[in-house]
Amino acid sequence: MAKAQSVPSHTYSTTKMGGKDFAIETIYANGNIYTRIGGKWSSVPMTPEGKKPQHDKAACAYVKDELVNAEMTAVYSTHDVSPKGVTDTQVWISKSKGLPLRVEMDIKAGSQQTTAVHTSSRYEYDNVKPPM
After folding, report:
1. Which of 30, 48, 115, 119 has the most C-beta neighbours closer than 10 Å?
2. Is 86 within 8 Å of 80 (Cβ atoms)?
3. CB neighbours of 129 closer than 8 A, spacing ≥ 6?
4. Helix runs in the chain, H state only
């Protein structure tokens, strides 16, 4: 996933939380992270610290090969446990580029892990431009 942040990329995500859907766009370009939430863009500089994995007990396993938009991918499943909760993720990595094309993430947060969040993301790498 850090590799996706090191090349220009545009991510389109939908997050479902509390029965509501939120659309989020993220662009990594020109040393900045641009994020659009609720129709408004904001930006922050990228830092090397922001690219480091933030997990306590994580496991990753290869699941299968699968086509995504006519591109062969390797699908990986991760399970991450931290003091903030449990995250289960499936990542589709392009076999030719080594970059993620799709991510499905389920987070159970809180002391009782009662807050459930699902995020579905797709990644694009062509014609990426920062917002104006």
Report:
1. 119
2. yes
3. 27, 29
4. 2-6
